């Protein structure tokens, strides 16, 4: 049943947004997951 739920979620284009800091720079990242593939777009945020 758990696998069926995962497969059904893969049919929907899901989007996750995160913010983090690494090496003194701030990043804003958008993760998109669709049909089992992950697409990542990361941007450096300037103050």
Automatic annotation (TrEMBL):
It comes from the Bacteria. This is Uncharacterized protein. It comes from Salinibacillus aidingensis.
């Amino acid at each position: 049943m758990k696998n069926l739920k995962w497969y059904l979620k893969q049919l929907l284009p899901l989007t996750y947004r995160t913010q983090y800091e690494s090496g003194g720079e701030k990043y804003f990242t958008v993760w998109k997951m669709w049909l089992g593939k992950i697409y990542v777009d990361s941007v450096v945020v300037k103050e």
